[in-house]
Amino acid sequence: MSNYPKALQTFVDPFLFQIFVDHNEGDWKMPFEWHDSLEIFYTLKGKGHYFIEDKFYTFQEGDMFIIGNNELHKSQLIDGEPFEALIIMFHPKIVRMLQTDNQYDPLTIFKERPPGFSHQMKMNQDDQIIFDMIRKQLQTEFELNRDDSMCSIVSLLNWLLVLINRQYEKEKQLPSLNPKYSFKLNNTISKALEYVNENFYKDLKLSDLAENLFVSPSYLSREFKRITGFTLIEFITSKRVRHAKNLLTHSYLQITDIASQVGYNNVTHFHLVFKKIVGMSPGEYRKYVSKID
Description:
Blueprint: E1 17-24, E2 38-52, E3 55-60, E4 63-67, E5 73-76, E6 83-90, H1 92-96, H2 108-111, E7 120-122, H3 125-144, H4 149-171, H5 187-199, H6 206-213, H7 217-228, H8 232-250, H9 255-261, H10 267-278, H11 282-290
């Protein structure tokens, strides 16, 4: 299990499989995160930076990342330019549902991290055609949600993993990556993150949190920014917007109710904050995620 704070954990509700498109632009920031599921990140449009554990990458359209469970990671815009990424997340056990050959493990690429391992890869032109077909069919089956959809998803996911493993075998000779940054938490910031995680929908003030942690507001502000890359307010806002995105995608709650649940009593202010960070209004975002092909 990871030793990272729960405040940085996302997708905590149990699920077997998810596939969705992340659209990021403007002032959007992603905090560091980790989760128990495995993740495939595929760049559809644009470019950006990716931090995974102790490695730093630059990506562009067509680049793919293989992220193991409990690996700390975050993506980042370059000069405010937008990017779109397809996210595939799944529980390891659904891959086993179809496994008949005990000698071959399609999850090897998620588990083996030899020196110089790179999370990043790019499909060759022929494999790219197959990958596009598989990921579109995965999206279709996920949205259909039929009784037999999971059977199809498991088959397609295994095919995709075989494709990825073969591509990684070809890229093993690529130059190794050296660590370029570090992410370390001290006890105070860890406690601060946990407190925000449990109370992000409340009216949190830096002074109150600092008093609760027996440190000065200036120290807490400085260390929080240094370690997370966010001010306390920015991190709270990020938590609120991410929670709102989840509710807009997976619930039928009215936008006014969602605003209230994530800590905004003024729905107009919620609209302004959400659009500034996501690049579209809550209503537009709900329509956008419902029409992803």
